[in-house]
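does this look right to u?? acetoacetyl-coenzyme A version
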Amino acid sequence: MNYIFTETQLMIRDTARQFAEEVLAPTADERDEKEEFPFEAVKKMGELGFMGMMVSEQFGGAGLDTISYVLAMEEIAKVDASACVIMSVNNSLVCWGIETFGSGEQKEKYLKNLATGAMLGAFALSEPEAGSDATNQRTTARRDGDYFILNGTKNFITNGSQADVVLVMASTDRSKGAKGVSAFIVEKNIPGFSVAKKEKKLGIRSSDTVSLSFQDCRIPAANMIGEEGTGIKLALKTLDGGRIGIATQALGIAEASLEASIKYAKERKAFNHPIAEFQGIQFKLADMATKIEAARSLVLNAASLKDRKQPYATEAAMAKLFASRVAVESALEAIQIHGGYGYVREYKVERFLRDAKITEIYEGTSEIQKVVIARALLK
Ligand code: CAA
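got this back:
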């Protein structure tokens, strides 16, 4: 299917492709191996406007639409899924959350810096006992005059140890359950805030995933986002858009798997023929390409609905559910096409599989996406 993109959207895609090939590609494998955060690349992403793509220009952003964001993220994910998730969390979760729900003062103080890349953001909803069951928040924020006293632990926090500010969900009234959760902007380096554990991961190893601990952290009441008790709705609404980002990440990984497979199949000879001449290989490529095209349609559909200010939560869940499965399947097939070479680090496809798997887990597992879709069907 040929999508009609505007000149601006195509220019953004080409800029992202060039950036990914010139800046990310040369170091992606080594950073994955060494679990190194891409400091220089993230700085450059800020300069290019990629850290606040959908933030309005008034607040330092690029003022672009979701389609442009998807096109840029796709190019970055094709080369480096770790850089992609760093960008995705800052854009989809932190910037979008603050721009949509934050006060004018919060936007001036935080959003402007987050959108330009001067600050990095993290989104802290998950806890040891609140993953899929996100409303079961144990972190508490107790009112104390003009402050809230924050206590608790968040885990699996992307960008957690590198972030300057963390958007934290915490219970301000446990007796009210989901309706007693509020959202706060928490600055790093405040007393009582610490990184409790850095995770050693299967994939996206160049991104930063940590547990955060809050012990009697004094958060100014002015840093609460939105009304008290609206934190869960804010988080889930923000995740609706986040899921378009992760679906895009999955799409990029799937495309990279297909491109690597086509290249290898043309070069590799067996029985005196390039393996691309064998139907067993051709059918795999055809299936991968067809599923990728379907995933792209779902992602662009969700992005386009969001841009047109129409409901998109169900479509975003569908895009993430489908694209993440296609990413895992495509990476597995890419390894099969590469044979033994696919199983070793010399070729990138083993990284694609390791990176793909998380797209079926974070920002809502595939099972949670099905819950969201089914609820919409049955309501
Ligand atoms: N937008 C706005 N509000 C929403 C909403 C949405 N998409 N979904 C639900 N809500 C509201 C509900 O209406 C309800 O409010 P009311 O009682 O006033 O109606 C409230 O939020 C609680 O919702 P539910 O009653 O539906 O809650 P639930 O416990 O039954 O489950 C869930 C909801 C869909 C399972 C949800 O918990 C969920 O999506 N879980 C997955 C969490 C997740 O995606 N975590 C990702 C962590 S962040 C991350 O991964 C980032 C990263 O590192 C990359």
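The beta strands are 121-124, 140-144, 147-158, 165-171, 181-187, 193-198, 209-220, 224-225, 269-270, 273-274. idk if thats expected tbh
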